[in-house]
Amino acid sequence: MSLTKAEIQHVAALARLQVAEEEIGVLSEELEKILAYVDQLQQLDVTGIEAMSHVGVTQNVTRPDVPGISLLPEIALANGPDVEEQQFRVPAVLEG
Amino acid sequence: MDFFSGLRKLHESLVAREVSPSELVDFSLEQIQAFDEQVQAFVTVTQAQAKERAVHLQDQLLTSWLAGIPFALKDNLCTKDVETTCSSKILRGYHPPYSATVVQKLEDASGILMGKLNMDEFAMGSSTENSAWFPTRNPWRLDCVPGGSSGGAAAAVAAGMVPYALGSDTGGSIRQPAAFCGVVGLKPTYGLVSRFGLVAYASSLDQIGPLTHSVEDAAIVLEAIAGKDRYDATSVAREVPHYIESLTGDIQGLRIGIAKEYFSPNIDSGVRMAVEAAIGQLERLGARIEEVSLPHTPYALAAYYLIAPAEASSNLARYDGVRYGYRAEHAENLLDMYRKTRSEGFGSEVKRRILIGTYALSSGYYDAYYKRAQQVRTLIRQDFDEAFAKVDVIVSPTTPTTAFRLGEKTEDPLTMYMNDICTIPVNLAGLPAISVPCGLADGLPVGFQLIGRMFDEQTLLRTAHAYEQAAGFAPLKPALGVQA
């Protein structure tokens, strides 16, 4: 298992992370070691084995649709790094 | 006064008015003042609020077991208006607008919050060295780690700064630090305790549980925090048993399983000897020791290090600098802001796991990695199902070694991951497990683990309690505490 520089940059882009050029060497070494370790799962025959996504009871959980107490807008926005007129402000979404 | 003699004694002293909530709060603050400069368990001490609350409770009837008694919380449990950081730069300054359900329950029981405890960033780590703030130290030996990720919780309890704390356990994060620090750590069955307000790491594995000085204390705290919560759809509607009543001391005829897979050559001889002595003790108490087989155990770590990062990569997508926490400056556009914020805000282990998780879920690799890991998870679960057809409880070491030195395992992520080899299978299967101190090896605490059937915390606690009573050396006290 080996990870190319381009693959690392691709995965980083998917994860919304920046990887600096000088980090790539160490990172690819670490990731390769981890991937080599998890590769032992390929030794097992899992034909016909169901994938387990969670533990426990699979059942619908429903409740009556009754309005409850919710956070006031100013409280919900209180932790925002940049807030204006009850909205979160972000940098430009579109170029130009 | 000390916090080592248990919640029952503190409760009785409060009811008899031999001690007041304010005195307990002052004592806790004194202990923090005396030892936390060295141990560094706390990231926030809520001194003013704690004192105020103690005064408020002064004249009230303290009927509940936990009323008037100080506690502290791992910093990934949301506390209304008290900073909650997960020991990450990306959440610095975050003041949750609500409290986690477990926190609300302890408040409703008239407990007194003393502060928030250090951890590996977003609970990713086994030594509390991955904290963005500072590493926590083991009260037994200050150049050793307390374990992790609930290292602050284990160290604070072990040093006697608070009588109990809550932590979270995704792959061993309560049990491993409990073992390293000589305290009791309980990971309840998946679904027993609400996770509402627990900052999510890997949602199919995370559970909240207590770190305490005794099994009885663990039973008391568990009873207070367990139960269905309408805010957590994964919490299960079952009547919460009176756990304390199950502590009969009688395990005559109980069938206890030993799986050879948990006694691999990776287990240090000192740990092995202490755990084998504990098994001998259980046998003398009338338990029947039987061999069981859990053949897929060697694959658990690999499955975990795909499943947990995959879930983490999804859960941690919410930290984007928009609604709370850190935001990077000088961004050219929105995408650039996301990427700068996350790259500057997350530490290296968190980034590593997000990358692994994203890779495992990405197109072309999903079947080979994530799906296969989930299939192996089914095999691990089936191993336990078969074993629990024959025995009531399974016993193992909690960790392969005692506490290691700071910096010893930070170079190689895989070596660090190996710490959780005995605890991870339990989370994958959703079972309850407890780590109980069983002596010292070279001056450092050793813990053994008992694993139970789903929702059978009663048998687990009964077994652990019977051992603890018979062993007769609990609770362990580090030299640090003795100097008090």
TrEMBL record, chain A:
MF terms in GO? asparaginyl-tRNA synthase (glutamine-hydrolyzing) activity; ATP binding; glutaminyl-tRNA synthase (glutamine-hydrolyzing) activity
Q: Which UniProt keywords apply?
A: ATP-binding, Ligase, Nucleotide-binding, Protein biosynthesis
Which reactions does this protein catalyse?
L-aspartyl-tRNA(Asn) + L-glutamine + ATP + H2O = L-asparaginyl-tRNA(Asn) + L-glutamate + ADP + phosphate + 2 H(+); L-glutamyl-tRNA(Gln) + L-glutamine + ATP + H2O = L-glutaminyl-tRNA(Gln) + L-glutamate + ADP + phosphate + H(+)
What's one GO BP annotation on this UniProt entry? Answer: glutaminyl-tRNAGln biosynthesis via transamidation
Please verify whether the record's keywords include Lipid metabolism.
Answer: no
Q: Which domain of life is it from?
A: Bacteria
Q: Does the keyword Transmembrane helix apply?
A: no
Quote the EC number. Answer: 6.3.5.-
HAMAP family, per this entry?
GatC
Oligomer and partners: Heterotrimer of A, B and C subunits.
Task: State the similarity comment.
Answer: Belongs to the GatC family.
Physiological role: Allows the formation of correctly charged Asn-tRNA(Asn) or Gln-tRNA(Gln) through the transamidation of misacylated Asp-tRNA(Asn) or Glu-tRNA(Gln) in organisms which lack either or both of asparaginyl-tRNA or glutaminyl-tRNA synthetases. The reaction takes place in the presence of glutamine and ATP through an activated phospho-Asp-tRNA(Asn) or phospho-Glu-tRNA(Gln).
Mind telling me what this protein is named?
Aspartyl/glutamyl-tRNA(Asn/Gln) amidotransferase subunit C
Q: What is the lineage of its organism?
A: Bacteria, Bacillati, Bacillota, Bacilli, Bacillales
Automatic annotation (TrEMBL), chain B:
Q: What is its EC number?
A: 6.3.5.7
Q: Which parts of the sequence belong to the Amidase domain?
A: 23-461
First-level EC class: ligase
Name one cellular component (GO) term.
glutamyl-tRNA(Gln) amidotransferase complex
**Matching InterPro entries:** Amidase (IPR000120), Amidase_CS (IPR020556), Amidase_dom (IPR023631), AS_sf (IPR036928), GatA (IPR004412)
User: Pfam families in the record, alphabetically?
Assistant: Amidase
A GO BP annotation: translation
Extract the SUPFAM superfamilies matched here. Amidase signature (AS) enzymes
| Reactions accelerated catalytically | L-glutamyl-tRNA(Gln) + L-glutamine + ATP + H2O = L-glutaminyl-tRNA(Gln) + L-glutamate + ADP + phosphate + H(+)
Give the residues annotated as active site: K74, S149, S173
What does the UniProt keyword field contain?
ATP-binding, Ligase, Nucleotide-binding, Protein biosynthesis, Transferase
| Main function | Allows the formation of correctly charged Gln-tRNA(Gln) through the transamidation of misacylated Glu-tRNA(Gln) in organisms which lack glutaminyl-tRNA synthetase. The reaction takes place in the presence of glutamine and ATP through an activated gamma-phospho-Glu-tRNA(Gln).
Q: Which family does it belong to?
A: Belongs to the amidase family. GatA subfamily.
Q: How is the subunit organization of this protein annotated in UniProt?
A: Heterotrimer of A, B and C subunits.
Alphabetized NCBIfam families for the sequence: gatA
Protein name (database record): Glutamyl-tRNA(Gln) amidotransferase subunit A
- Native source organism of the sequence: Sulfoacidibacillus thermotolerans (Acidibacillus sulfuroxidans)
Phylogenetic placement of the source organism: Bacteria, Bacillati, Bacillota, Bacilli, Bacillales
Name the gene for this chain. Answer: gatA
